[in-house]
Amino acid sequence: DAGVIQSPRHEVTEMGQEVTLRCKPISGHNSLFWYRQTMMRGLELLIYFNNNVPIDDSGMPEDRFSAKMPNASFSTLKIQPSEPRDSAVYFCASSLEGGQPQHFGDGTRLSIL
Amino acid sequence: AQSVAQPEDQVNVAEGNPLTVKCTYSVSGNPYLFWYVQYPNRGLQFLLKYITGDNLVKGSYGFEAEFNKSQTSFHLKKPSALVSDSALYFCAVRPNQAGTALIFGKGTTLSVSS
After folding, report:
1. Consecutive 10-residue averages of pLDDT for chain B (114 residues)
2. Which residues lie below 8 Å from residue A74, measured CB to CB, with a gap of 6+?
């Protein structure tokens, strides 16, 4: 069965540009998570949704970051305007509610020049 | 504040030797406990979890983990390490309450030499 699908896998863009990362969770999963991973800060939770509703966005760095989940099969993470310090690997994960494990996509490697 | 600690940034073992990757947590109640592994350029992969029951949990690829409630620890173990086990390992804890996400440790790099 298909896992969590993220696109694009790699994104290189110039500072100031808008960046949109996309995620398709595993069908039937009702929780979706966005993470950022860097060498300096490790794995950080940015935001998570339950049943398409944002539950906790306290990890979103600043107003330049926004996330949406218009339906159960799609989510986006947008950065506008992008800055070089946003360069990182961004992961999306999904799970069922309760004590079920999260399933991760292979990430989007974002480089802001 | 609730937290997860992986006290070792790196663990080095020789192939065939037993390995242990340590994890302790500070979370109230009876949390759910997880281990994940990350290979280069890949997302995290679920290895095993503890919710309740037997303190020794078996997972994928021959890994197991031992839950110790009094020490609030959940150490990852394998009796005989393989070179292919070399990767980044994350311990994670989910408080047993609705509307909470996983709390991840900083990760431990396991290096298995031949």
Report:
1. 93 98 92 94 94 92 95 97 97 82 93 96
2. A22, A23, A24
